[in-house]
Write a structure and sequence with these properties.
It is built from 14 helices and no strands. It is mainly alpha-helical.
Length: 396
Amino acid sequence: MTPAERRASASLALVFALRMLGLFIVLPVFALEAARLPGGDDAARVGFAMGLYGLTQAFLQIPLGLASDRVGRKPVIVAGLLLFALGSGIAAWAPDLTWLAIGRAVQGAGAISAAVTAFLADVTRDTVRTKAMAMVGASIALMFALSLVLAPLLAGWVGLSGIFALTGALALLAIAVVIWVAPPEPREHRPSDMQQLRAGLAEVLRHRGLLRLNLGVFVLHAVQLAMWMAVPAMLVAAGLPKADHGHIYLPAVAASLLVMGGVLFPMERKGRLRLAFLIAIALIGAVQLALWVLADHQPGLWTLGLLLFVFFIGFNTLEASQPSLVSKLAPAHARGAALGVYNTLQSVGFFVGGAVGGWLARAHGAQGLFAVCTVAMLVWLVVAWPMQAPASTGRR
């Protein structure tokens, strides 16, 4: 990477990290803490409030991705972060579950993922883009693990309202990074008129390679969120108190990142990105299968730790490679639209994973949940099999 590419990658990964920490840190304690609010005795409403973020974000990813093509990346990113901060403030103040749901909806309206990833693609070459996206993927994975450690501690200290206030402060800090740390954005991504924007979106929706990746990100994040409806209970059953779950998550994430860095980048340089991609899907599918088999047998901590380590290898590899593949496959004039569609499916995956995963865990138990996750990963593997990784060109 050039110094400019390192600066861009690090600053935008930090923006992602601050925003995703604000998103993830409420998830491990949301259901328990929201139950204390008026209206929180209805589990269905609590689940809807938790998932509403993903739903509103899904509706706005494409419009904001298109807007970033039209008016620029930074203005869209800053506006989205302001909305996220506003929603955090509403949720922190919320006197009941209805206002908490409204706050979550406003948070989701700040759908900046497409604009940030398009910005990163604009300022990095094809040859280093997977590494740049890996920094973003690594920051997301680390924030997810960190949130699992911090959330129970913060909930006991400042409560859910204090956690939401913290998420608002993190969003404001991310705005400062965008304005003063991130490099100036290039102008060549801007299309000349709205007709070109519409044509770019239509082109994206007809592209088979992009459709495979869009299905993939939907399945990946649906499975990711769904499995966390059962994994914490399995850890508790194995003898690990809820407050100590970070003792499993953090080592698993850190070790998986080392493996990913030592395997993914060399395989990409050797033209084997497709193989790494398919192996990652298979690894997650194997973990779901193993959890399905073990769900009624109370597996020990070492077994669960090993399965989580393997899961995070696959998850981090896919988090790094999928956005890179989208940015490479998409036409330059429609990169924002392509990443908007991609991030829309990611958000829908979050919403479906939470809503359907919770229903499956309640109606069919952990075995039924992991059975569906296994089938979903198998379908994705079959659909992804014909994929061809694009050749690197070395151009921006």
